[in-house]
Request: fold
Amino acid sequence: MNPAKSFLKAISSLRLTVILFALSMVLILAGTLAQTNSGIWTVVDQYFRSIYVAIPFQLFIPRKVATIPGVFPFPGGLTLGVLLFVNLLAAHLVRFKLTWKRSGIILSHAGVLLLLVGEFVTGAFAKEGNMSIVEGGTANYVEDIRTSELAIIDPSGSSDDLVVVIPQSFLEDSGVISNSLLPFDIAVVRWMGNSGLLGPMQQKPPGLPTATAGRGLQISAAPLPAANGVDGNTIDVPSAYVTLTKAGKSLGTHLVSVHPQVGTQEVTVDGKVYLIELRFERHYKPYSIKLIDFRHDKFVGTEMARNFSSHVQLTDPTRRVDREVYISMNQPLRYAGETFYQSSFMQGDKGTILQVVRNPGWLIPYISCSLVTLGLLVHFGIRLTASIRRKLA
Amino acid sequence: MNPIRFLPWLTLTLVLLFVGRIASEAMRSHDQPGKMPYDALGRLLVSDGGRTKPLDTFARSSLLKLNGRQTYEVDGKKRPAIEWLMEVWGDPEAAESRQVFRIDHPDVLAVIGVSQQDRTRFSWKEISPHFPEIVKQAELAFAVTRKKQDPFQRHITDLYNKLSEYATIRDFRKPYVVAPFAPGEEWAPLINQEGTALAEGESAKAIRSIIVALAAKPGESQRLDDLTKAVADYESAIAAKLPSDDRAAGLEVIFNRSAPFSQTSALYVLAFILGCAGLLIRPLSPDRWSIGFTKSASMVLIVSFAIHTVGLIARIYLQGRPPVTNLYSSAVFIGWACIPIALLGEWLTRSGLLQLIASLIGFATLIVAHNLGQSGDTMEMMQAVLDTNFWLATHVVVVTIGYSATFLAGFLACLYALGGVLTPLLKGEPMKALPRMIYGVICFASITSFVGTVLGGIWADQSWGRFWGWDPKENGAAMIVVWNLLILHARWGGMIKDRGVAALAIVGNIVTAWSWFGTNMLGVGLHSYGFMDSAVFWIVAFALSQLAVMGVALVPTDKWKSLTLSEPRP
Reply:
């Protein structure tokens, strides 16, 4: 047999399929257990959308029982997905036979291929963000709650603010950020990917910088491990200590944080007032959404939510849209390639939090699942009727 | 004529008599003149946890929370929960001496000054001198999140919660007893949080007169007459104003009293015993004896399944929801869904084996359900995101059927391995039929678990815009799908044969148990609605037992007692 043929045979073999299934089982189990230590998004990136992953042995043994150091390398979800895809495609190329008896298998396998493609498209292109709107307020941007940005705002303009934003990646590698657009240089003294705020009376852990100006005089921030979803906090709250300097003269070390208690702070440079704030990264949209009313119904005599719903006004001059919409649990709004879901609400029911998802591949799973289901029903239906017919004969 | 031919019909008659007796007892009113009208009181409509229900249900679930049982003991005799609740309201002082607070942790017992553990139930009167210490310990423990609490901290906070629950009920702040008679009204408690009396409407007055009659001491017969009349008046007022809720409450009382799922589990045991008898005597006795027992087992199984179905339908009607709404109901449903699949297989093969497994699974899942239902009302209201009958009816039901089928295949494989290796009982036809059934059920499990998982993805896409989120519960479901597909593909590729399929199907039990419970224990993800702490032990024990059975399945075929050399090896 020539080498190309034997390679094709190996890559299309059922043996490989079974091995890949077994490896997937281990990967999914590890990726589930890993969620007790790290946030779901970290796990998804590390385990399910990666080429390879280093799995700690400790995952499989509770710490109470034994402490085991070390990791073992394992193929990641991307590798396994691509291999399954190739394996399946090759199998049909090599053993392709279009018969009535095999029609179910072909249909469902086509669906599986599409499912793998769908997950790949989602991983590569889907964007998720949040839109928080207070009652009566309007929002025209989506926040990416997985990353933040430092905004320096010049509010002196008559109609628009002049805003310069520094992405999180710049803040993470502490150094001095200077740019002609910025009214001052920014030195990142300490970056905290996730943090908790401490009041003035609370003991600060040692080794943290001290703010010399702004809100940080009353509140300080201490680093926390990345949110893991187990303790109910699924969102990282980044904070940073930054020292602002203008022409070598310090304007003080400020605490900035996405925590609302810190918020926007004023910095005066040569008599001119600027605002600075650390906020979740914003993506501005051509449309805006006004929250007319937010409802949070509870079951009688309990604190248990019965329903959340947002009554909003959707306005988009670019598409000549101006209408009222109700968004509630299990009833999202699909608009302009994005989908708006009722996700959460602000403290005291003061406003709504919508999850905004743009996923160009959102329809793929629907198609692929119909294909697989149809295929399986056809295949096993043929088998079952045959077996019942034998029985009755 | 052989008398054994009548055995199935005799069994059927006896079982039906037993069922009929329970049903008629549950439907009959036991109230008599000159006695407390407990049945009428239990029938009254109240609202608790956002759901309208009969007072009987409230009494049962409250007592279950405090006492771990739906009954309590008075002078060594079991009494129903409604009597306890009526005493709490009518004669609080007497109720304080009832030993209804279950405490089992030795360190918590030490807090209430008990050094020797000769009993686990204590009365309010016994506990009350230790309130300051209990409050102090509970406050220390409440500062720690539930997951990080040690066993003592958990038990002391449990005790604290039980005591405050009791006080809330005693002080008429719970359940909400004042029915909304006027339009725009909502259910309300008799006394609000601040301790002031609320509501002056018709229903509030009626409730007060019932309470007054309950509490009245002198003139025993007069008091009972007043009470009976007050209850009857209020009941007819409710029936007029809230007719559909009231009808449901009547049915729910019957449901509570007849306890269909406990009766069913008893019948499953009976079916199992009869089925075993049929199999065991097969090698020893004439065929018809064996068939007589096997047929009797089928009869009992069918009756049991019918009651199981009626119970499920009653729950669906009472809750206004599809059958699976929480972990408890998933257990009830998994057992139920296995039975028809197994009966179909039984009809196809006539082996007497599938019904054995069906009755075993029916019993085991109802035991699991019983243990899951210990936290109170099993028809609790649902979180907003789960508040959709469409997805509950499709995704949850189909995926639960997938779980059922995977379990069924796993238990059939256990039977195949244990029976085939250790006993000669499966010789001949069963050794050929079982692998076919296991394979068929795995095919069915693959379809249902796949479709169910995908429907879940579609629900997720509709609710929070993510078809697949790699959430632990989703991953668990995916593992079941992948595992079933692995078995099928390995078999199609000729890598494994009957024995290998069986060994892998047994592992499928572990995968399913992990997906069903294990992922909830992690306490992460959007699906972790059923976090439990004590079940970890049972899951680990179950997994180990399955590994042991799989080890048995891996014994070389020439050591299998049910395989003789003359027969082809699997």
